[in-house]
Each structure stands twice: as C-alpha cells, then as structure tokens.
C-alpha cells in the first residue's frame, strides 16, 4: 500500500470532557481519524488538565495502520493530560515546579525572637494609600514573603501592573471589580453597539472578563499576570496583599518586584538596605517609571501607531498621581449583571469551541469567599469559626502553591495548641486583639504577646502556636505557603493526644492511668475552644 503522511495537529475537548484527536493530510484540516475509521476517537476524562496542550507530532503511516495512529493519539493524550494536570502553570510558574516547591534561604534562619510587625513605609496616592511591611526583616526573609496593604477610596483605581511572584489578596472591607489579563485569552466582553451609537459613537470596545469581589473574598493573582482593581463602592476598599517571593514562579531574587504599566509610582516595595553587598537601585520615596518609561519614543510610536504626545502620556511623564488614581468620569467598562454573567458563561461552556484553551484557562475561578459564616470548616457556637481556602475549594491555588485561613474568635475563646506541618503561616489581625504564644523546636517561647488589629505575625513551619481572644474578640486572615496546608492539633478532639494509647501517655508524663485518661479525653472540643470564664457570644 502507498504511504500516506498524516500530521497530528492537536486535541479538542467538549463540555462532557470527551477528547478528540485532529489530523491533517496536506489540506484541508480534517477532524476525523483516517479511513477506515470514519468517526473521531474519543476518551472521557474527569478533571483533565487546565493547561493548553501544545503538540505537533508527525507520523508516517500506511493506510493499513490507521488504527495504530488513533491509538497513538490516545496514548500521547493520556500521558500529556496526567503530566500537566498536576502542574498546569508552565506559563505561570515555570517548568521546574514538578521537582521543586520553594526556594530555600541560603542561610540559617534566626527565629529566637518573633515580632508582631506593623508597616514601615507608606505612600500616599491621589485616591488612596499603600503601606508596606519590611521585607528585609528576619522573619519575612526566612519565610520568603512580602506584605502590603492598599486603602482605595471610592472611585479609586489601582493602576495595572504585575509582579515577579504569585500573590493572594484578602478583601478586608468594601466591594469592587478587577481585571486579570490572562495571556493568550480573547477579549470576550464587548460593548453593546447600539448603546455606543446612542452616545454618538459607533466604536465597539472589547476587553477580557471583569470580575466582581466583596468583603471576605480571597483573590488569586499568578506571577507575571497584570491586574487592576477599582473601588465601585461608597466606602474605602481595604486590601491585604500577600506575596510569596520564594515561590518557584519567581526566578529573579527572593524580593518583591512590581512592574507597573502606567504612572510613576513611589518605590515603596524596595527597601534602602543593601543585601549581600549589593545596593538596590532607587531609594525609598523615589518615583519610578512604568514599563514604557525606558523605551525610546520613536520605538513606542511605531509599536502603538500613535503620536509623540500620546507616548509621553504612556510613559507617565509629569504624572504625580502615584499608583491609585481618582476616576472622575463614568468608569467605562463592560460589567454584565450577575444573572446575565451566569447565562453568558453557561452558553459559552455549552458551545463547542475550536480551542480547548479558552474553555479552561480563560474561565478560571480566581476568587473564593472565606468570610461568610455558613462556609466555616470549623465552628463552635461559643468559641468562633475557621474557614479555609485551599486547592480543594479553589483549584487554582494548586498552581500558585498557596492557601489561606480566615478565623473569628469570640470573647476570650481560644485556639487549641497546634502547628502547621508543611508551610509557614503569616497572620494578619483584621479586627480585635489576642494573646498569642509561639514555641520553637527547643521548647522555648519565641513570642508571647498581644497581636492587635493591623499587625502581622509570621509563624514558622512546625512552631506550635496558641491564641486567646481579648474581651472584644479577635479576627484574622492567615496566609500559608502550601496549597494544602495541614494543621496538627495537640489538644482536644482529633489531636495528637487522642492518637496515643493511655499506656504511652502515662509513661510519657509519669502520670497515673486515670490522669492520662483525663489528659486524653478531658477536652471534647476541636481546635476552637470555648472560653472558660464567660459564655462567649454567637456571631
């Protein structure tokens, strides 16, 4: 038989997660397996990869081997699917994520004296302010994290930019909208042409999806992906931003670098310290340029097909508004109502697309609310509640390797002694205050003090911690450097004590069997413990 050249050009997936192989024989593109098989080969997979599949394989086969070609397609797909399902973000976090989770500090960490830290720098902007914690502090360097806080006034716009590491944003107060410019995704939102014509213009604007958020939401921003935030509410919008600078996605250095696409923001992220004998470019309080400032005018004119006056605006020359600007006119973005969004999204998913990439990457869920009481994972009516966000309820967290925990303690309630098995924990107090104790591997107390609203405490991996709320209660958000952080309890139900036989406990502590029984079964509550001298309150 004559030899025929067939080329595998890609895969496709329908809403039922059936996968199809596409071949080409010269021209045109054919969407069926070569004869004698008239139909598409298909296979059903649950939870297939969200990653785009970029394959271009050539096969030289005879017509008699067409069935082997289809089998080859299936085997290649299975291999690629399972390989990329676990490690989707080749584009977002680098190909070495499979072998390495985090970069470790090149020196030993000195953690004998932890501190409750407050912001060390503040930058005022036209429509708000930004405060940053000292990323060169011993605790932050050891954990490889960075913290900052945005306060955005009503109708304030946080200018778009991207960072060298993934970040989590917790909405402490307010509501707003944001845009996340995912690379390779189409501008699926279009203005209504009739509305534009009624305003005297027939121009149709297009942009990517606009996402709404509210108080209690946890927002995810991958490394290297631009995003902007707008306060559409009447009150101030307060955001806590956590950046994992030792994440494998960051291949520069273990410090936060912010790349702005507009304006001339003050360089509050950079410290004035000299690290390892090298001084950082720029100093605290100095204005920096945006990403277009360093390019020649004539090159930008050619790249954007605009005049020199617009290029000067692009570079942010004479722009003193900093990173949060006031929007005086109507904020002209397309934002469908919630029910319209759901209907539109349903139609989009139900229709077969030519590109499986758009059906997966471009419709990612990048937020999860952990502020609502009905979503609590641990609840004590007299003590409080804890809600978690990990890759189980927000799958994209697996790609950035981060998670978070939202906690509420009622008056004088406690959190049982516990430690996090596989991550550091960075706690930000959102309301109230608590007495916190942290003990290290030598049994020494490395922190014994009050954690107040607006302060941050870094708790290293495996260090044991206890919290007791003040009379006014205590609320916090904790960021963790693992997408599935595991907590081990040392007291109460489901704790280490419950796992030991009574004989082991009695010999561990040189106590009687009756005392061991009281130690093991005396506390019947789990993780959140009711106050001993008050009745607490219900949220």
Structure description:
This protein is of the alpha+beta class. The chain folds into three domains: 3-86, no CATH class; 121-270 and 280-363, Jelly Rolls (Sandwich); 370-529, Jelly Rolls, CATH 2.60.120. Helices cover 18% and strands 33% of the residues. It has twelve helices and 32 strands. The strands form six sheets. Strands 23, 24, 25, 26, 27, 28, 29, 30, 31 and 32 form a ten-stranded antiparallel β-sheet that branches. The chain has a seven-stranded antiparallel β-sheet with strand order 6-7-8-17-10-15-22. Strands 9, 11, 14, 16, 18 and 21 form a six-stranded antiparallel β-sheet that branches. A hairpin with a 4-residue loop joins strand 1 (3-13) and strand 2. The longest helix is centred in the first third of the chain and has 21 residues, at 66-86.
CATH superfamily of the largest domain: Jelly Rolls
Radius of gyration: 27 Å
Low-confidence stretches are 1-67, 76-99, 272-282, 339-359, 534-539
Domain count: the total is: 3
Beta-strand fraction estimate: 25-35%
How does CATH name the architecture of the largest domain? Sandwich
List the SSEs and their pairings.
Elements: E1 3-13, E2 18-24, E3 29-30, E4 42-44, E5 57-62, H1 66-86, H2 90-93, E6 121-125, E7 128-132, H3 138-143, E8 145-152, E9 156-163, E10 167-173, E11 176-181, E12 189-190, H4 193-198, E13 206-207, E14 210-213, E15 217-221, E16 226-230, E17 237-244, E18 258-260, E19 274-275, E20 278-279, H5 297-304, H6 308-315, E21 324-326, H7 338-350, H8 356-360, E22 367-369, E23 378-380, E24 384-389, H9 397-400, E25 403-409, E26 414-420, E27 425-439, E28 445-452, E29 456-459, E30 464-480, E31 487-489, H10 496-499, H11 502-509, H12 513-521, E32 528-529
Helix pairs in contact: 5-6, 11-12
């Amino acid at each position: 038989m004559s030899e025929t050249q067939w080329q595998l050009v890609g895969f496709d997936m329908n809403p039922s997660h059936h996968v199809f192989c596409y071949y080409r024989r010269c021209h045109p593109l054919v969407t069926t397996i070569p004869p004698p098989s008239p139909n598409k080969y298909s296979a059903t997979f649950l939870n297939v990869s969200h990653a785009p599949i970029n394959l271009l394989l050539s096969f030289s086969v005879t017509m008699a081997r067409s069935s082997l070609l289809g089998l080859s397609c299936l085997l290649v797909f299975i291999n690629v699917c399972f390989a990329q399902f676990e490690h989707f973000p080749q584009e977002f976090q680098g190909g070495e994520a499979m072998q390495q989770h985090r970069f470790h500090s090149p020196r030993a960490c000195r953690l004998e004296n932890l501190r409750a830290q407050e912001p060390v720098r503040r930058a005022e902007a036209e429509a708000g302010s930004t405060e940053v914690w000292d990323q060169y502090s011993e605790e932050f360097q050891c954990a490889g994290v960075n913290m900052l806080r945005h306060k955005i006034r009503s109708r304030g716009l946080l200018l778009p930019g991207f960072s060298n590491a993934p970040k989590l944003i917790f909405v402490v107060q307010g509501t707003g909208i944001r845009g996340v410019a995912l690379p390779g995704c189409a501008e699926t939102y279009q203005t209504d042409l009739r509305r534009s014509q009624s305003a005297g213009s027939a121009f149709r604007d297009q942009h990517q999806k606009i996402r709404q958020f509210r108080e209690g939401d946890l927002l995810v921003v991958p490394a290297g992906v631009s995003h902007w935030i707008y306060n559409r509410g009447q009150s101030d919008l307060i955001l806590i931003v956590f950046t994992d600078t030792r994440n494998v996605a960051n291949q520069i250095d273990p410090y936060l670098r912010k790349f702005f696409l507009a304006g001339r923001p003050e360089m509050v992220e950079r410290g004035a310290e000299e690290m390892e004998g090298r001084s950082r470019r720029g100093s605290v309080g100095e204005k920096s340029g945006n990403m277009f400032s360093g390019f020649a005018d004539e090159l930008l004119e050619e790249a954007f097909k605009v005049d020199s006056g617009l290029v000067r605006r692009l570079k942010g020359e004479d722009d003193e508004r900093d990173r949060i600007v006031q929007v005086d006119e109507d904020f002209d973005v397309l934002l469908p109502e919630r029910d319209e969004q759901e209907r539109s999204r349903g139609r989009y998913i139900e229709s077969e697309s030519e590109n499986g990439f758009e059906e997966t990457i471009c419709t990612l869920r990048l937020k999860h609310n952990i502020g609502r009481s009905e979503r609590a994972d641990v609840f004590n009516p007299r003590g409080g509640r804890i809600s978690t966000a990990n890759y189980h309820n927000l799958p994209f967290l697996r790609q950035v390797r981060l998670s978070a925990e939202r906690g509420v303690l009622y008056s004088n309630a406690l959190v049982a002694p516990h430690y996090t098995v596989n991550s550091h924990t960075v706690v930000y107090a959102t309301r109230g205050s608590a007495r916190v104790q942290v003990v290290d591997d030598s049994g020494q107390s490395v922190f014994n003090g009050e954690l107040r609203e607006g302060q941050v405490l870094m708790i290293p991996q495996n260090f044991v911690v206890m919290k007791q709320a003040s009379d006014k209660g205590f609320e916090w958000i904790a960021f963790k450097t693992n997408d599935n952080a595991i907590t081990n309890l040392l007291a109460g139900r489901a704790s280490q004590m419950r796992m030991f036989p009574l004989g082991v406990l009695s010999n561990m502590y040189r106590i009687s069997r009756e005392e061991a029984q009281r130690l093991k079964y005396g506390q019947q509550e789990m993780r959140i413990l009711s106050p001993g001298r008050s009745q607490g309150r219900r949220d």
